[in-house]
Amino acid sequence: GHEGPVRSPTFNLLQSFDTEPPVLHADLYRVASAEGTGLEDYLDTHIVLVEWPDRLPEDESHWRVTISFTEGGRHAVIEQPGG
User: Is the pTM value of this prediction over 0.90?
Assistant: First the structure.
């Protein structure tokens, strides 16, 4: 696992962690679209954690875990490839 602080990638957009398996943290807050960020280069080789995933194009070829926070706690939805 990763030891040390986990910095927000807000200024870099993408922050990679040298773990096994490798992890990429993407913060897409400042972009209208993920196109051109290089994010697609990591999708097949990393676990990709995305803040502001509404900036991503629809993609049903990868697992998707959506976590939302409510007054009552957390809600997680896990979707397999192909829906």
Answer: no
